[in-house]
Amino acid sequence: MCGIVGAVAQRNVSNILITGLKRLEYRGYDSAGVALINDQGLQRVRRQGKVAGLEQAVRETDASGFTGIAHTRWATHGRPSEKNAHPHLSGEELALVHNGIIENFQELREELESEGYQFASDTDTEVVVHLVHRAMAETADLFRALQSVVKRLRGAYALGVIHAREPHRLVAVRSGSPLVVGLGIDENYVASDQLALLPVTNRFVFLGEGDMVDVTLEGVRIFDADGNEVNREVHELDGAHEDAEKGEYRHYMQKEIFEQPAAIQRTLEDRIDSPQSVSDAFGERATAIFDQVRTVQIVACGTSYHAGMVARYWLEALAGIPCQVEVASEFRYRQHVVPEGTLFVTISQSGETADTLAALRDTDSSNYVGRLAICNVDGSSLVRESELVFLTKAGPEIGVASTKAFTTQLTALLMLVMALGRRKGMEDEKIESILNELRQLPNLIEQAASLDKPIEQLSRAFVEKHHTLFLGRGVQFPVAMEGALKLKEISYIHAEAYPAGELKHGPLALVDKDMPVVAVAPNDELLEKLKSNLQEVRARGGELYLFADKNAHVKEGEGIHVLNLPAVPEIIAPIVYTVPLQLLSYHVAVLRGTDVDQPRNLAKSVTVE
Ligand code: AGP
After folding, report:
1. Most CB within 10 Å of its CB: which of 35, 266, 432, 549?
2. Does the pLDDT at position 553 exceed 90?
3. Distance 410 CA to ligand 1 centre (A)
């Protein structure tokens, strides 16, 4: 989703801004732009398409400045085009960038038009820049102008504004959309994500909801939503830089698939020494809160939702704790009954997903025994607004398709199952045996990833297909769902997942030689039932592609292609079986020539509703 970078310095900041935008490309966008202030005034360059095109245009126009704002736009209001790209201007001195949606833009636009303001774009954002322009006529102070304008805005926004009359100042605000401040030496920055600024600083301030920041060469001043000056903690980040580079890999997604053993290892480190350390990993208040838990409500979107679905099978089967899982965009708009003793759990890679965040914010905390965030980004809104936090340690995930975030979420959720189970009488012996399985996990993931070459071979069969069915049973059903999501989002092949037992209730009608069917077949108690379901597919001429436990005795044959996985303990099998499905979609997408890391129409961090 839209990305913002801004800088105030004594040197030309155009490179800082363009590099920052490149590092935000993973968020998804369709156009990009930059506005720079130098001694001659304000200059703006915008282009539809990739940041590389903008970079070239900046070079060709010789645009430079010591203060600037830059933006990648993911269209919401108004189609992707140069005229709708940010920054938007009002007059020749004022420029603004925006991430989010201004819900009341229509009424504001009518008001401004009636006063003679002319609009150059179809965006909701343009009203804001004109409102600031109007306010500047009254206060002649950029900070105060923006402060008065945000009172008129409804919706979600992170905004950055510069004005040629105050050339060494950048004013920014966040409400509902992410924004961080970067602290440099005699120069300071803002960005939607700290990744954008890692080449210039490792010192960050995560703004709170409603915070407004006045950025100058001398420093930054932060004011809360009530206008009181506040001190926010400065975070020093280490080691995240290299993780955000592609290195020897062709795509970030590929790199992130192969990073999974290390990411899981990091997520487990120091947290699984004993049954007690598992609970401790959820924070100081965890034990007191977990003692009261009788049921769990999980809320998340996309891949994170699939992680929640797996957790439901685990929680009910291993810990005997009832669990509901719902996609956040539905949960937040539905009246629901909250059983006594419910723990509210959100799962998110980014911690900024608008629907998940809104669901958390809508919860009446008195109805829940506590709210836990399982999240990959420290300092994100979800993390800051939850009582309990478990940070997965996947490292920066740049590919839009979530891979290592998912498997580390599953790892975290299995730990949650043990932590809650222990309070409900799960024996330490049982916990120790799951811990032993978890200790083997990085190695098993590595073995699964070593099937890369044969999976690449297999993927050729999918390149010309238009549809694919994914099947799984039990806890492997959400794994099949995740496999289908991966294939559709990066290869644009229509893919659906079904619990294999549902086949004959409808989807079997679709099966013919043109519909490949992918199934995950670990050696579990449902294996024999799954095998019968697969016969139903073969009997209709469907081609089967099976990822099966080497001890499951699933035989290759006409129309049956089998890739054997190592023998995997049943509980952790969903984590291991995810990997071949990720590799399958990756290779199909590469062969189809799609944009693997930034698939069309999608954004990494969905910060608008
Ligand atoms: C999955 O590959 C997608 N990128 C998407 O479904 C994603 O999982 C979803 O948007 C939720 O994001 P979050 O984990 O950052 O909240």
Report:
1. 35
2. no
3. 14
